[in-house]
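debug: dumping io for the single-chain case to check the tokenizer round-trip. Nothing else runs in this session.
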Amino acid sequence: MSEIALYRIRLLEDWLRDRSPPWFQGPEAGPQIEGHGRLLDEHAEWVATAIRARHAELAPEDALNLLGAERGLTRYPGESLETWRDRVLGAWEFWTWAGTEHGMQTALAQLGYSSAIVPRWLSVPADWSEFDVFIYPARRSFDGSPAERHRILSIIGQVKAGHTRLRQLTYVSFGPLTWDPPGLTWDPPGQVWGDAPVQLFP
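debug: decoded output
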């Protein structure tokens, strides 16, 4: 478990001694006054550190888990602390754009993937509520694990519009991909699939 560095404070140890009457600054009483100030400084250090732990940028792992739950987010099994911290920091944007195409791309970007969202109704009007998702590496590559597949599908299910349904999820080894009617293209054009696409859903 990660720990936040103690926020060092040395204020009252010197202040109490310097503000004491002259007869409390001598060799007998002076060290006692400094000792009281040192204890108060230590207490202030713990208070200041606890306040700093309330911020997601600095929070240790246990505090970050509470901050994530407070923001309506769930940490997935095996999710690294760095990825989890990025998602907690991005919670405002995550929920602001929930239910939109941009929101889904933002959520997937927080997981480390770039994406192209393809509405199916443009080619098959009867599939008006369905969409396909193509993801490709941004900060990470798909590792092939069932846990990572579940994490991606969970995020899509959490942030997609309520009336829509994921028809197909595909991972390709590189991008960028751009969706503009009438189709999906690479930018720049002329690239090829490279490694065979991996169909993650259904």
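debug: round-trip ok. Strands lie at 113-119, 130-137, 165-171, 177-180, 183-186, 198-201.
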